Protein: CS domain-containing protein
Amino acid sequence: MLRALLGAVAVAVVAGAQAAKGSPLIQALESAPAEDEARSILEPHLQDMKSMEKEAVELVVMRQWWALAREIVSKSHEQKVDLSFSVRKAVRSLKDEADELLRTLNPNYGMAQQVSPAFQWAQNDTSIFLTIKYTVRWNAPGALEVTDPSVNMTGNVFNFSGLGKHSNNKYKYFLSINLFDNIEAQLSSWSAASVGKLSVTLRKRWARKWPRLLGDKKTKVNNMHLWMEMQEKLDGSLSGFSSVSNSPVTCAAGGKLYCVATDTCKKSENCSQCPGKTEANEEAHLCAGKPSEKASLSFQDADMDEHQLSGEVKIHKARNDFDVDTYAVYWGKSDFAKLETSQGEEMLLGEVSALSNDLDLQIPQNSPIPEGATHLLVFSRNEYGEYSSPGSLLLRDAALPKAKPSGLSFEDEDGGKDLVKGRITILRAADEEKISEYSLHWGRSPTRKTTQNSFISTVKKEEGKDVSYWLSSQKPPDGATHLLAFSKNDFGELPSPVSFQVVDKTKPCVSRGEDSCPQGVQVTVDENPEPKQAKVKVTVTPAKSEEKIEKYRIFWGKKSCGDDVSSSSKNGHIRDVRKEEPLEVELAGPVPEGSGHILVFSSSPNLGESDFCVSAPFQDDQSAPKAEKEL
Ligand SMILES: *[C@@H]1O[C@H](CO)[C@@H](O)[C@H](O)[C@H]1NC(C)=O
Ligand SMILES: *[C@@H]1O[C@H](CO)[C@@H](O)[C@H](O)[C@H]1NC(C)=O
Ligand SMILES: *[C@@H]1O[C@H](CO)[C@@H](O)[C@H](O)[C@H]1NC(C)=O
Ligand SMILES: *[C@@H]1O[C@H](CO)[C@@H](O)[C@H](O)[C@H]1NC(C)=O
Structure:
């Protein structure tokens, strides 16, 4: 292309120079009959070549006044004027003319030789991909481009022609292929954009795997190749397809009609044996009939008002929508029956061509749902009629729940500080119709969720029942003061919740030295001389505040009570003392191995015993003689 363009420019410039009759010098040179006259015309200008028109030099060369041209060039060197561009241009133009003259000596030159270009092909489920190279053999170099590219497609025929030049020869590339099956010309495309090649994408009339490219098995085309590299990439989309054996094209070759259902060719009187397609269509070479496959639908109502719809109904066509021309979408009163108006008319929502790329239908904002409509139905149609069985979709009218739960309750059963657990009870909403579940959140107020980690859980609605949720022991997120319960469904959450203020219940003595910790414990000296036997009196000094306390719990201990919360020093339970009982108790009995202390904890009625304790050392009196015992 670049070369051709430059050539064209050069010719145009020379022609322009000749046409520029304006300049007297050029005019005079043009009318000069011979070199001598031209020399006298130019003589006055040769002293100042800088101001001389460059066209004059070109003209001298084109007229082939070689001696004069050489003189001018040598003078230009003396005057340091660069004429090389003009000279080269004119010389090239002359040379081209001369070369063309030589080529014309070839009697066939100028007549484009018609050749069949090499090509390769691949397929996916819906398309055939062709690359046509402007050369006869795939691996041979060829023309870089073609002029007048032309592509015609009808039925199963693909024709291409284009003119190209290569190695001083002109070629007319012409390719005509009779494909295995029909193609959709309007949905097919081609492009001459890449160097030396034409890229073509043919849309198959029916999406399926062809066993070969050509209609006639016996046709031999030696510069046709399978496009392996491409086919390997496309094989994924063909997995699950097995090659068909016939098509209307192959059946027509034998004077028969194609039966899709059985993938066989039938005589036209035998279409009655083609399942579902019993009408002979000689023109299309097809046993035809109503469609026999249905599409499916998907739709999500985007209109949150009750009894109103809007949004996009998407039609998902049947994999083998061979003979479907359009898909018609109706309001349905069941998953198979169309809804009718009071005048008995079917209620069509819209009809979409099966060939369009986006099979969808818009339902405008605020479209009312007709009385009695429960489904959307999609029917496959063609010129023979409608497939009786539709694809269906249950209508789901998007709307928020109408009522919040009527109550919420919770009692903290975790005695830990800042920790809560317990059963959350959600009282059922007065109107449960649009509710599918309740969602539980932490709230920073009776109406607003905490800014972070508010979500606790969803709880399924149980028609006519209160529901509950077990909150396992946890620390509520920052700022949480309430529990909130929202009514919810697939379309959203009713913004207004029911709430319950959370009270963090704690057991006594959750930190050291609190008023609910026992103030102290005293232990008398062991009065039992037997080893590992004790007889002591333990006196507990009660807590300053006994409000949360039900009893004190006394244990053997391996260590004294420290600042760390750890129960690991307990070495066995001794006894419990209710707070209203005397806090001075006699202890007599065995001492567990390793016990050097007596520990006292305070304990609440239902939240368990304290984390911290008070203690006193215990020394086991082992003075009794033990020899007899060992016998
Ligand atoms: C394609 O080319 C063939 C062979 O020249 C010709 O018979 C046919 O009519 C052409 N078809 C189209 C669609 O151009
Ligand atoms: C396509 O059709 C046009 C109009 O009939 C014709 O001029 C042209 O040559 C055809 N091209 C091919 C490749 O058959
Ligand atoms: C087959 O190729 C066509 C054209 O490139 C493309 O639109 C379609 O998505 C492909 N099919 C699959 C299953 O990838
Ligand atoms: C057509 O049907 C007749 C009767 O069933 C049968 O004998 C004949 O073989 C069929 N012909 C074809 C081409 O299927």
Summary: Residues 113-238 form a domain with the Immunoglobulin-like fold (CATH 2.60.40.790). The first helix runs from residue 2 to 19.
